[in-house]
User: Fold these one by one.
Assistant:
Number 1:
Amino acid sequence: MAKRNESSSSEARKPGSADLYTGRQVRTARKQRGLTQEGLASQLGLTFQQIQKYEAGHSRLTAGRLREIAIVLHKSIDFFYEPIDLRAEETADAELRAKVKELQHKARKLIADMADPEDLQAAVHLLNAMKPRPERDAQA
């Protein structure tokens, strides 16, 4: 008999930030339409407890169910999703690239300034040990 993973079955799923955001948006839209949880549930053929779970982020909304909710609440699908700021991600990537470039420059300067061959050899060994495994194996 196969052994079940006890930790996944005994621990409740914690809602992620996207589930929480979507649930808050469902609650906001429902209240804007003047509906109770029972009223929304009735129109969707669900129980009010299921609406509570959606709104709390404890149950994930499928794409189909979210579409049904959007129709009943007269909202577009994108209303229920947290906006993604791609510019912030691009800025973070640019900052990371700039930091890497700065550190590479410092590392080159430190190596160039080394006069003792043993120190230089130790630096090369250290840097080689830090490379990803396939690159190390190729140089062996």
Number 2:
Amino acid sequence: MLSMPRPRAFIVALGSFFILFITFHSFSSSARYTLDLGTTSDITRQKPRTSRVHLMTTATTNDVNLCRLVASAAINSYPPPLILAWHGEGEFNAAESHMAKIPAALRYFDSLPPGSENDLVLFVDGFDVVFQLGPDVLLKRYHETVRAHNKRVEDKFGVEHVRKHNMYTTLLYGPDVLCYPVDFRRPACWLVPESTLAPDLFGPKTDRNDQHARPRWLNSGTVLGPIRDLRILFEGVMDLMNRTFDPNFYGRNSDQFYIANLWADQEFVRMTSNGDNTSLPVPLPDPAPADTIDHLEIPNPADREKAEKHIGIDYEGYMYMTMALFHDTTIWKIFNTPQRFKNPNKDGDFEIPLAPDVIHSKLPYRSLPRWTWANRALRSKTWSDVPIAVNAITRNFMPVIHFTGVKKFRDMWWEKLWFIPHMEMLLETEPDRGVIAKVDGIRYEPYLPFGKESKRADSWADTGELLGWGELCGEHVVALKTKYVEPPKEDKKEKEKEKEKEKSKEEKEKEQHEDKPKEQHEDQPKEEKPKEQGDNKQEEGQKQQHEENKKADPQE
């Protein structure tokens, strides 16, 4: 058997090792980056395989509903919430203006270390959002929804055209069934894309009124996307507000107004990017006034390239459910078997099985310690063993619930959330560390504000102040555990009796008054004629209709 001299063999071995090392290092270095969200083309920017997730909200003062957000986020393993504009003043006073969230977010982005631009940020309203499912489900659906958005744009315009004009989606906002602030001349109300939900979602009444409208418009209370793109959008919002602010406009302090206007500019530029300005769609909603079409506002962005803000809408409530006018179609069940439902708007029953991504997500009670028999039983429970809310129309189990519209549902449905029976015990467990989700080869880790560890239920102010659970929510613990009690309804029969008594009393006083000599009361002010019973009924009917309209208005 031939053998090499030892020095030569050593050199060859060392050289081989060096080549293998360089090859592996080059491969691993390139493999650390992947196409953004696995879209069907390479139009999007590359992201590192490890990305961090920030959870942000805005609140200047404390409230039981803020504590609901914090508790539900902690139990479902979201990152520690960062509360922007905490005790803020001036432009950072969120109690005075929704616009405070924009400069507060930009100030926070500026404070982050280099390399944070590719981090994802989940930015939600502070007083009407709770979490039902974990970030592993939400982030998976974010990837799927972004892919679907980008695929639709490529199918419509062509891959090369989309690449050329940089038209892709990374920022996903929540959907809304109303365009607010309401003005159907605004491009944000008439120019934006149609909903991706089925045109017959509610049967023949679909899109014929607000109660049967498909979500089509932008709601700024929930958004998920890269810090890089959210920063650019918010800078655009500040610029637009500074140029167009009208102190007499009722929606002047609405961040949604400015964000939706920029979204409309984006969609206008996309639609006209092939040079054809004559084929703009005019899909006006039915409630729009008849003369609106003659006074439509046409966008005129100063810089067409900068108009692309990468905004998209989660039309189907796949990530977050904007609740206005969907309360009646949201159902809470334990889905240990497929549940059958009667569709009030179409013929026939239908089944809703528990969604596969929910079934395969991390177990609900996994954070409990292992060493007690009671905990062992809870730790073995799956998502098929706990109550979950589903939208029976879209058939989606929503990770994030956004309580727009009638606010009493924040109280009514809080006790329905799966973790409420064991909330206190879950809040005392150790926080999740390391990877909270793996999607398309990307490992998502929770961002720890200011690089500091904290307990599971703790939050941080954007000033750097640690807001412990006891400090932030100690005064609201009793309210968080108190069951909702429906206010007593008025007894109509008793109310009618009171009216009859009042009427009889007025008639008797009138008779006594008329029996007196004329000279005794001719200088007295004339007594108002009592209303007839029909007038009373008409007035009550008007009051009742007003109350019904008020309940149906999601902006109330």
